[in-house]
Amino acid sequence: MLNRLQRDIPYHFDQVKLLMAAMTHSSYANERQDGTEHNERLEFLGDAVLELCISEELYRRFPDTREGELTAMRSRLVNQETLADLARKTGIGRALILGKGEEAQGGRERDSLLSDAFEALLGAIFLDGGFAAAQEAVRGFFAERWPGQGEKRLKNKDGKSRLQEVTQHLFGARPLYSLIGSEGPEHDKLFRVRLELPEGTVLTAEGSSVKRAEQAAAHAALALLEKRKA
To answer: Which of 72, 115, 158, 192 is placed for a possible disulfide with 80 were both Cys, Cβ 3.0 to 4.6 Å?
Structure first.
């Protein structure tokens, strides 16, 4: 699976052990208990690498755009939903090395796990090839997702910002978010939030952080409101 993944991503590793570590979930390492390296540290590094690469690319692409708009565009690109989708399309889900328990619970399809693995992959690319390699890989991964000059003002807001604008327009009020629970170990906790629209509709969503769970809930609410319009 790692050889196939190498063919499907815009980077070729010299140190394949880094790619293997990026694809190894902590559940597998915990079951083996033999010192097998897993991807949490690489995820930490990759998160920072990804944000810097995206920021640099947007700064270069939009020289006349203000800081607030650049931040909004970055938020739209760097979120759990987008990263999980990229992970699926590049075969990261197939290549993940999971413990038996995580595999049985459907971890291979979980957005939080996939997005974390994607960040770990970027951390591994950075260690293997340096920042220039990471920049090139990010440009490749996001090739079809960069906002165009003509559409950036329409699509650069994150889900929560867009939902707030929609509800203010439709109902004259904002949606309400609340944390209703969390589960899992500290290193892989899943948060659940409740979103109430001004007209009373309630939705729930999950994410690897409260922020990501709120964004997931906002996207679900936007999809619901769009469906009602149709």
So the answer is: 115
Residue 230 pLDDT class (50, 70, 90 cuts): low
Residue 36 has pLDDT above 80, yes or no: yes
pLDDT at site 204: 94
SS (H, E, C) the chain: CHHHHHHHCCCCCCCHHHHHHHHECHHHHHHHCCCCCCCHHHHHHHHHHHHHHHHHHHHHHCCCCCHHHHHHHHHHHCCHHHHHHHHHHCCHHHHCECCHHHHHCCHHHCHHHHHHHHHHHHHHHHHHHCHHHHHHHHHHHCCCCCCCCCCHHHHCCCHHHHHHHHHHHHHCCCCEEEEEEEECCHHHCEEEEEEECCCCCEEEEEECCHHHHHHHHHHHHHHHHHHHHC
Query: Residue 153 pLDDT > 70, yes or no?
Result: no
The predicted model scores a pTM of 0.65
